[in-house]
Task: inverse folding
């Protein structure tokens, strides 16, 4: 999931591209720390638990684990984006 700030631009609302930070843990596909390579010579990928705030650096669609949260620190409109399975 992602939470994004929304700004008003004239008579329309625009969702910002940068997501607010997510706290907690997520499962993501990351390069195998052993350095193993796949059949094409690319790093072998494994599922690993990482901090949620860096999960998308490894995986476009990480599995956020229960307990993840987003803290809103200022008033305004936000947009929640959720990818279903």
Result:
């Amino acid at each position: 999931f992602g939470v994004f700030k929304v700004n008003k631009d004239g008579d329309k609302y625009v969702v910002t591209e940068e997501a607010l930070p997510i706290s907690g843990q997520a499962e993501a596909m990351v390069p195998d720390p052993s350095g193993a390579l796949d059949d094409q010579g690319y790093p072998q990928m494994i599922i690993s638990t990482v901090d949620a705030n860096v999960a998308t650096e490894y995986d476009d669609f990480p599995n956020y684990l229960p307990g993840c949260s987003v803290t809103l620190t200022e008033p305004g409109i936000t947009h929640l984006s959720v990818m279903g399975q």
About this structure: DSSP finds one helix and six strands in the chain. Strands lie at 2-9, 12-19, 25-31, 45-51, 63-64, 77-81. The radius of gyration is 16 Å.
